[in-house]
Amino acid sequence: MGSAVPRFWREIPYRYNLIGTKCKVCNRVYFPPREVCPYCRRKSLGNIEEIKLSGRGKLITYTVIYTPPSNFEVQAPYVVGIVELDEGPRITSQIVDCDPENLRIGMRVEAVFRKIQEDGDTGAIYYGYKFKPVEEHEDKG
Fold first, then answer.
1. Element (H, E) at 16
2. Does residue 74 sit in helix, strand or coil?
3. Domains and CATH numbers, the chain
4. What is the pLDDT of residues 66-95, one digit of tens each?
């Protein structure tokens, strides 16, 4: 088994639940989780707590990849964007379940869990988060 598989398994709670951290001193939220707040530099001794993020946010910017790196050729063209979560952190992610022409800056998106890649040597299939547009009528309430 390669070293990527154990590392992936350790990260599963964060990949499947979007677990971030929040500094109790300045209330900033981080993803991926941090042990020290980069803003106020307080140590994690009682000042950093894990929080489950909503997985909802807005699309800040995006690009369409037409010439992908190896192992992603079958997905091309695909969209990669920066999503600002409602809690504040920004995440780079693939944007799925949409036609690139229908994307717009500021549109609401939500996390979905999808296949990320396969490891041919070990046979492992890696899953993680991607984001998809939220239908306008779904996001009210």
1. helix 4-17
2. helix
3. 54-138 (2.40.50)
4. 998 887 777 889 999 999 999 999 999 999
